[in-house]
Design goal:
heteropentamer; A mainly alpha; B alpha+beta; C mainly alpha; D alpha/beta; E mainly alpha; C: mainly alpha; 15 helices; 60% helix; 2% strand
Chain lengths: 194, 270, 322, 444, 207
């Protein structure tokens, strides 16, 4: 696979088909952890880490266990198990190595398990027929796209905190609307990679 | 078909085993300990994170309690029963000190915009602390409430509202007795009083009668009429406005009737 | 003399004097600056463009009044901000749009672009551009039907033509000119298909100079924006002059990328804003499937504005370097 | 011609023409002088006299033991009628010495000049300055002898004389420089002598050509004094801005000018030092501008300390129109007092009277992020962020990342804000709240 | 009475989409048409009811420490069932819902209900809770889908076929109405849902 192809995968996953803004994957943590820039960045990094590893692991599981044994229908179960274990592992590591980060991410670290972007990217990798390297690249790029979207969002939400949003729209509704407008702005990247 | 099922189960079991083993190892390698009592104590605390205890939120206080660096009585919001349960959890033998009376805050001033004179026209931030920095605030009375709502802004329980005549009104049901408004008030016009008591002298001015009358028509003039009529002898004077000893007060309300300037109120009647 | 104590003086914090400018004045300055472009629009595209502008303005003011009333807030439609938003939106519409579209667009701009965030000063994105992108996504055909100036004949914009053919010859054919110079001249004056208010560069520049003179806008964003577009075009092997004159670059750089609410407050932030917007504009024009990148690039930089503000804080006097 | 200046800042409307050309008038000594015992930054004075005592003009009536303090002298001769709390510029009341004027202006017998000052050592001179009660007369009121005794590890290489007078309306420094340039230059030489014969740089805004010419002439041809014209821009007279403009040095955050080898003094202070050394007269009077649209006949006065504003304003023809604000100092940083019974103190260089129609009555609207405050701030802060953090009580962020305590409270941000937000007021409030909190924590 | 309360709870008071803000991804992704929302909602309901029941049955058996992985295994088994069934019987819908069918596994509603409800209460109540939550999710998605579809295309294309409603359709307004394509695009999903949640907040506040 040449550089060009990899670049296409990256630009596509980060900008054009941004996993949150265009594909709706990972919306729960996106809405939940984007209130502050620091935590958003932490979450982004955690997701990046988990997604990169998960892409690799699930590819291996798919191609070296499920396919040879003809057990493709077990894909969902197997993948989610791998991801759940990975997330728990990351949680343990962060709790030990950076208590402040752990405190900041709080309940959202376990939520990476239910971050559908992680499982989503694994499934998409398989469905798109990516090889090992493209899978890894796609997973990482998707997570970078997630991080980009979430830090932009966090910046805006910190500003929204200071504004006079009508009470009914405070919190999630205004965040959703902002995400929509952000998604609209990302339309500009449409067609950049053919 | 059956071989397929067996294979599935086997694969999943193997996967589960490998991942489980890995996690078990990780759990041990990266283990950290946290005293489970902290969470237990935290569960008993009010969870308003008001900070009245002086710690960063309830969790900080819970940790301090378990370590032993804080007193159970440190949380002014906790009710007696909760405090006793916390004492059970951390095994602290301090129940004697647990406050049995719930305290609530009260504004010791009834000088509203109509009765209390102004000395200048303040035009600045709507904040009592900011206003106090300008010549002790725009009211002629230097002890009374400025009515700009700093107490409202610090109240974590939304228990205070502003009356149309610019005096804060405390919702006795919502007030948790954290005392943050008392700390925040630059005039020391907010005080804590037992919730069960109803009578309070709503004047904070220690000025002599004449000076006090000049600045506010509702100011306590130290006439001692209330003290004289009080059957429980609960009202006394010590270089200031009339004060009530809540241990003696029977809420009979005679002083309220007697006060010539009407600055004694039955606060629990709104 | 009366007792000095009986005189109730006003006590307040310094400073006791204030500058002359206020928000209303700034907004009306922008509105004034936009007048020449409006005249040009009427000149090129007929009185219908005036009608579109009027409908947009009326709907925007109406929508703002209605929403503020509904939210139980003070109605502030006279502060000029809705007026400016509406005029900018109208200038971003093709002259052929059905007359209900400016009404919808103005409502979206005010409602979704501004009021949901609490009104003036709080919106993270430029309301006029939000509205335009939504309209474009909702009614792509209506929003891309262009006409030849002085004529109702359908045409394409120079940018759309160059997107297809990738060379200036096609544009020259489109505008019936034979030399680059006359092409530039015709594009400069605005004699080509496009949105109402974006085509006539001299009219826009006139307003821009007025705004700079009145200190409503600073040079940072327009200059960096325009020059980044030129440099990027050069690097990508495109004709920089064409890209400066084509599309809504000047309208965007002078009036929309300078919208104070949605751009950084720090000088360095503003420069990065211009750089980023210029780069994105050219990337979209060169590689994207859309012919024009102004609005998306500005919206994307709007989104990055809080981060720019945060990471381009000025060095405080006496901190760091001597 | 490009004048030296500092980056950013704002242009004001100035309004100086009403008083700039007029010669200074000596005001009547007050019938009753009310001399507050707080007239400087530092420890308040303790009265040195008793009620009923007779005091001479120039006699010390208040002093304190502490290091940072300056004594206070009687501005008139007469009888001490009372020692009581009286209205004050900064507070509702402050312990003041109330002296009834006997009209004699009997000079305190100990007062005598120091003609041979050049032979005195710096410590003696500093002590003379202390005993003369000299404080910063540009508004800061910091005891001057402390300023002239920089810590030993700092080597001072320049003394800056601040003649910027950048605020609206005020012209007393201008008049002083035009009428008595030799006092300014003489005083500067004394300070230079105290600091070890360092170079003298006088900075004057270019909108005062008369003052520039007069000072230049008085300075002579020697190269120990340079007189530099500065751009007319606010806050050119700010100490840090002065250092930046004249020497292109930046005073470290939270530090003093002495840390970059500079001592800055206002022209009025310098002239007063000259007066003290050459006549022995302590600081009992000062030049003050009475101006603003609410004064009938604006002018510059030499007035005794302890004269009430009421008296000073009647000296200038009384009020004109419905009075709304009486401001001590310039309108950008001055204090609007609550009563005109407050009396003149050492650091009040101007009284500006505003009518109702002269003040901005617009309510705060909203921030449209126009960034004018950021572009105006002479210490390169982001006032709007500070404002937001102050309002959302996020003080830590404001202090750490946004330099709350670097604010010099010049008021540029509030002045330029088209949304009329109380930017500087919020910043000041946040500072006071944080200091309050810190004090409480120390108390615990 | 308890199960009935549990059931109605999920429909309105704790509607997963409008009140608990759970399961945002499918709510945004598949609601380009009412029918898709309905399909997704019913699939989720099925998984939710089954998993709630099983987890409630097993709640005393599953050790505390590994409950989350155990829940996930249970949930993913049912998701696999749904996946296979849908693939067989509604391939068209399966194609449209795409990867969001396997992603039901990570729908926070399911794990959240398992953790918050099924792990604590009995079988009947858990099943009722699952059904209520599921149907609450379903009507929310269907409504959202309907709104987006009507505004975005001017009709409810497949729904009438499903309910055998004659095609009176919204064709009438076709002549007057130019569909606003935006609502069936990604930004439209976010904005419509945001406004709808805001509307719900408004309605419940006034009640």
């Amino acid at each position: 696979m040449d550089i060009r192809e990899i670049m296409i995968v990256i630009i596509s996953a980060v900008l054009i088909n941004n996993y949150v803004l265009q594909r709706f994957l990972g919306c729960c943590p996106y809405l939940g952890v984007s209130k502050q820039l620091e935590t958003a960045l932490g979450m982004g990094m955690a997701v990046t880490f988990v997604m990169a590893i998960a892409s690799a692991f699930t590819w291996i599981v798919q191609h070296y266990i499920l396919l040879p044994l003809d057990l493709i229908f077990l894909q969902t179960i197997a993948f989610i198990l791998v991801i759940a274990a990975l997330v728990q592992f990351v949680e343990l590591v962060i709790r030990k190595s950076s208590p402040t980060l752990y405190q900041a991410l709080g309940i959202y670290l376990p939520l990476i398990t239910t971050n559908c972007a992680v499982l989503g990217v694994a499934v998409i990798n398989i469905r798109a027929g990516y090889g090992f390297l493209p899978s890894l690249v796609n997973g990482t790029a998707a997570a970078i796209g997630f991080t980009l979207a979430i830090i932009l969002m966090a910046g805006i939400r910190e500003r929204i905190e200071l504004s006079d949003v009508p009470p009914a729209l405070r919190g999630v509704p205004i965040a959703l609307i902002t995400a929509g407008l952000l998604s609209l702005a990302f339309f500009g990247f449409a067609g950049m990679v053919k | 078909m059956s071989s397929n099922i067996i294979l599935s189960v086997a694969v999943l079991a193997a996967l589960g085993f490998i991942l489980g083993a890995g996690l078990a190892y990780a759990a041990r390698a990266f283990a950290i300990t946290r005293d489970p009592r902290i969470d237990a104590v935290l569960a008993e605390l009010p969870g308003a994170n008001c900070g009245a205890c002086g710690y960063p939120g309830c969790s900080g206080y819970a940790e301090a309690l378990v370590i032993g660096s804080a007193l159970i009585t440190g949380c002014p919001v906790s009710r007696k029963e909760a405090s006793e349960r916390i004492a059970d959890i951390i095994g602290q033998e301090e129940r004697m000190n647990i406050n049995s009376d719930k305290l609530i805050s009260v504004v010791k001033c009834c000088g509203n915009n109509n009765t209390s004179a102004r000395i200048f026209n303040y035009s600045g931030l709507e904040d009592c602390r900011a206003a106090t920095r300008f010549y002790d605030g725009p009211k002629k009375c230097r002890h009374g409430c400025l009515g700009m709502g700093t107490c409202i802004s610090v109240c974590p329980f939304n228990a205070i509202t502003m009356s149309p005549l610019k005096l804060p009104v405390i919702d006795r049901d919502r007030c948790a007795g954290c005392g943050l408004c008392v700390d925040a008030c630059p005039r020391q016009v907010m005080v804590m009083m037992p919730e069960r008591s109803g009578i309070q002298v709503l004047c904070n001015s220690g000025e002599a009668a004449k000076a006090a009358r000049q600045v506010c028509s509702k100011s306590c003039i130290k006439c001692h009429k209330c003290a004289n009529i009080c059957p429980a002898e609960a009202i006394f004077f010590d270089n200031g406005p009339a004060k009530i000893n809540f241990d003696l007060c029977t809420n009979c309300g005679l002083c309220v009737q007697e006060c010539p300037v009407k600055c004694i109120y039955e606060t629990n009647r709104g | 003399m009366a007792d000095p104590l009986s005189r109730e003086l006003i006590v307040s914090s310094a400073p006791h004097v204030r500058g002359r400018d206020n928000i209303r004045r700034m907004m009306y300055d922008v509105a004034i600056a936009l007048i020449p472009a409006g005249i040009a629009a009427v000149y090129f595209f007929g009185l219908r463009s005036l009608l579109i502008v009027l409908i947009t303005v009326a709907s925007a003011l109406g929508a703002e009044a209605l929403i503020q009333r509904a939210m139980g807030r003070r109605v502030t439609i006279t502060d000029g901000s809705a007026l400016v938003t509406a005029v900018l939106l109208a200038y971003n519409l093709p002259p052929t749009v059905p007359l209900w579209l400016p009404f919808i667009g103005a409502s979206i701009a005010i409602g979704l672009g501004k009021m949901v965030y609490g009104g003036l000063g709080y919106n993270p994105f430029n309301p006029a551009l939000i509205s335009r992108t939504i309209l474009l996504a909702a009614w792509p055909v209506l929003m891309t039907s262009w006409v030849v100036p002085f004529d109702a004949v359908a045409t394409a914009t120079p940018l759309a033509v160059i997107k297809m053919g990738d060379n200036l010859q096609a544009v020259k054919d489109l505008l019936h000119v034979d030399s680059n110079l006359s092409l530039y001249r015709q594009m400069f004056w605005g004699n080509h298909g496009g949105c109402l208010g974006e085509t006539s560069i001299p009219a826009l520049l006139l307003g821009g100079v007025y705004l700079m003179y009145r200190r409503v806008i600073t040079w940072h964003i327009p200059i960096t924006y325009v020059s980044t577009v030129a440099v990027t075009a050069l690097l990508l092997g495109r004709d920089p002059i064409f890209h400066l004159l084509a599309g809504g670059l000047i309208l965007g750089a002078l009036y929309m990328a300078t919208c104070p609410v949605t751009t950084p407050v720090t000088p360095r932030g503003r420069i990065y804003f211009g750089l980023g917007a210029g780069l994105l504009t050219m990337l979209i024009r060169a590689f994207g499937s859309l012919p024009e990148g102004i609005m998306y690039s500005i919206l994307l930089m709007n989104a990055a504005t809080p981060l720019l503000d945060r990471y381009t804080r000025p060095r405080i006097y006496g901190k760091g370097a001597r | 011609m490009r004048y030296k200046t500092f980056p950013q800042g704002i242009h004001l409307r100035y309004h100086k023409q009403a008083t700039a050309g007029k010669p200074t008038v000596t005001a009547k000594a007050p019938a009753v002088a009310v001399v507050p015992l707080i007239q400087h930054i530092g420890v308040p004075c303790i009265p040195q006299i008793n009620v009923g005592d007779h005091v001479f003009m120039g006699q010390k009536i208040g002093d304190a033991e502490a290091l940072i303090t300056a004594p206070i002298h009687s501005p008139i001769s007469g009888k001490v009628m009372a020692l009581e709390a009286r209205p004050h510029v900064m507070r509702r009341d402050v312990l003041s010495v109330v002296i009834e004027n006997d009209g004699e202006d009997e000079l305190y017998p100990d007062i005598m000049p120091y003609p041979d000052w050049e032979r005195l050592d710096p410590d003696t001179l500093r002590n003379i300055i202390r005993e003369g009660g000299i404080v910063g007369m540009g508004g800061a009121a910091f005891p001057t002898h402390i300023k002239l005794a920089p810590q030993s590890d700092k080597s001072i290489d320049a003394v800056l004389i601040n003649g910027a007078e950048c605020e609206d309306y005020l012209t007393d420094d201008n008049c002083l420089m035009v009428e008595h340039p030799e006092w300014v230059i003489g005083g500067a030489r004394i300070i230079s002598h105290i600091l070890g014969n360092v170079k003298i740089v006088v900075g004057i805004e270019a909108n005062k050509p008369d003052a520039l010419a007069a000072i230049r002439q008085a300075a002579g041809e020697g190269d120990d004094i340079s007189v530099i014209a500065l751009d007319t821009k606010y806050p050119q007279g700010g100490e840090k801005q002065m250092v930046k403009a004249l020497l292109d040095r930046e005073v470290p955050s939270g530090g003093l000018p002495s840390e970059v080898g500079v001592v800055v003094n206002n022209v009025a202070t310098v002239a007063k030092i000259f007066e003290l050394i050459t006549t022995g007269m302590p600081l009992i009077s000062r030049g003050v501008t009475l101006s603003g649209p609410g004064v009938s006949a604006p002018g510059n006065l030499i007035a005794r300390i302890g004269t009430s504003m009421e008296d000073l304003i009647s000296e200038c023809g009384g009020y004109k129109g419905k009075i709304a604000k009486v401001i001590m100092g310039g309108p950008m940083t001055g204090i609007s007092v609550f009563t005109t019974l407050v009396t003149l103190t050492k650091s009040i260089g101007g009284v500006v009277v505003m009518r109702h129609e002269d003040i901005c009555h617009e309510d705060p609207v909203v921030c449209i992020r126009c960034a004018r405050c950021v572009d105006a701030c002479p210490v390169y802060l982001m006032p709007i962020s500070l404002y937001h953090y102050s309002r959302s009580l996020n003080y830590d962020q404001a202090v750490e990342a946004y330099g709350l305590f670097d604010c010099i409270e010049c008021g540029c941000c509030s002045y330029v804000c088209p949304g009329r937000l109380p930017l500087m007021e919020s910043i000041k409030h946040a500072k006071a709240e944080i200091n309050n909190k810190r004090q409480k924590q120390h108390g615990r | 009475m308890r199960p009935i309360e549990d059931f109605s709870n999920g429909l309105f008071r704790e509607n997963p989409t409008f009140r608990l803000i759970l399961g945002m991804c499918p709510a945004l992704a598949v609601t380009t048409a009412a029918i898709n929302g309905l399909g997704m909602g019913l699939a989720t309901t099925f998984v939710l009811v089954c998993s709630n029941t099983i987890i409630s049955l097993l709640r005393k058996v599953i050790p505390e420490d590994i409950r989350i992985p155990a829940y996930i295994v249970v949930i993913s088994s049912f998701v696999t069932v749904v996946q296979l069934v849908m693939q067989g019987f509604a391939p068209e819908l399966y194609g449209i819902l795409g990867i969001f069918v396997p992603l039901i596994v990570v729908n926070c509603i399911i794990l959240a209900r398992a953790e918050a409800f099924a792990g604590k209460y009995g079988v009947v109540r858990s099943a009722a809770d699952g059904l209520g939550m599921g149907l609450g999710f379903t009507w929310a998605l269907t409504l959202l889908g309907a709104v987006r579809e009507v505004i975005g295309t001017g009709s409810l294309s497949n729904t009438y076929r499903l309910f055998l409603i004659p095609q009176f359709s919204l064709k009438i307004i076709r002549g007057f109405y130019d569909p606003a394509l935006i609502t069936i695009l990604a930004p439209g999903a976010f904005i419509t849902l945001g406004l709808m949640i805001g509307l719900m907040n408004l309605l419940t506040k006034h009640r």
